[in-house]
Amino acid sequence: MKRDVVIIGAGASGLLCAIESAKRGRSVSVLDHAERVGNKIRISGGGRCNFTNIHVSYEEYASQNLHFCKSALARFTSHDFITLLEQHRIKYVEKENGQLFCNKNSLEIVHMLEKECSVLDVQIRLRCRVSDIRKTGPFIIATDQGTYQSESLVIATGGLSFPELGATGFGHRLAKHFGLKITPLKPALVPLLWSPQDLKLFSELSGISIDSTVSCNGKRFRGNMLFTHPGLSGPAILQCSLYWKRGETLVIDLLPERDAYELFVKAKDSKMEMHNRLSEFLPRRFLQKWFAAYCQSKPIRQYTVKELKDIAYRLHHWEITPKGTEGYRKAEVTLGGVDTDELSSKTLEAKKLPGLYFVGEVIDVTGQLGGYNLQWAWSSGYTAGQYA
Ligand SMILES: Cc1cc2nc3c(=O)[nH]c(=O)nc-3n(C[C@H](O)[C@H](O)[C@H](O)COP(=O)(O)OP(=O)(O)OC[C@H]3O[C@@H](n4cnc5c(N)ncnc54)[C@H](O)[C@@H]3O)c2cc1C
To answer: Does the beta carbon of 8 sit less than 6 angstroms from any atom of ligand 1?
Structure first.
């Protein structure tokens, strides 16, 4: 079958690219091996899809070249996506830190994309396995549903996280096959695992959540930190996982808005146990374990000034060295991907192979938590759709 454009991957970036390309009068087929389109959109944002963030800026992304994403993000902004939602009468709500979510659920966005594709005659082929891709003038794409021939080929196969939803390394393998470099890949926005020592100390705290500031590699994130049986999760930890490298230490401020030493000084003559003083601000169960691990809890007046200063310092600088991450099974995204040096930032076309485009998470552009990854998918899909 001859088409102008074949897109592999019917996720966020692939569908937006298909819509834009079809609007230019191109005949477009989207091939996906999954049973449904937009599997990750469906589960994103806990089923309500945190589809963008009104504070989108290149600084919210991690990439070997931070400037690469600027052009596409400027070309199709969060406001452009909001306009699309409003045209489809999809209601949304703003939550903390500029995050926008669907009022009802993420299916509304999936249906909107399907509807746009249908109106524009985009052909979507699901349960379609691609067995071979060659370039002999046009691209020849062999699948178990026939062979496609196209002038442009767009790879929108996403990252490696959540393999049960259809994620594969197809895009990375294909890029390598055509001689394009891939930056190192790792799971990100992912829970971290306790070291064996900390596992013994803290695994029983599973379910506790603490508002904290977590720092790693020069980045600081404020938010909840959630104790799980194998380690730590919650927004502040997930954000840090984007910058954390194996062997590195996280520094956690357990009382981000308070001066612990000042609290102790105010109570320095008190008979009150340290635990009890702090239980106004931190969960009692956590304090018991934490003091058992690092210092003795006794009536405040029995501490020396140096001891109080040490405890205060530790509460603001609790150091944790995770053993690793919970991996792609639990990661929201993959850090790394097709090296941005290989692509034009204006068109997202491979410099070495005209006609071949990459969009979305398969590229080495990874957003922080809060709608940035879907915005990158929309912006990059839109951009490539203007040329493919
Ligand atoms: C649990 C979870 C929650 C998330 N929540 C949010 C959120 O609220 N906000 C946010 O901004 N981001 C969120 N993300 C991240 C966001 O979903 C992704 O970054 C985004 O969907 C990437 O879009 P994409 O088009 O690049 O890839 P995807 O949406 O992953 O689409 C890739 C498509 O390619 C197909 N495919 C893969 N391999 C092949 C192959 N070999 N042959 C054919 N087809 C193939 C897949 O089936 C899939 O349909 C979340 C991710 C997860 C896992």
So the answer is: yes
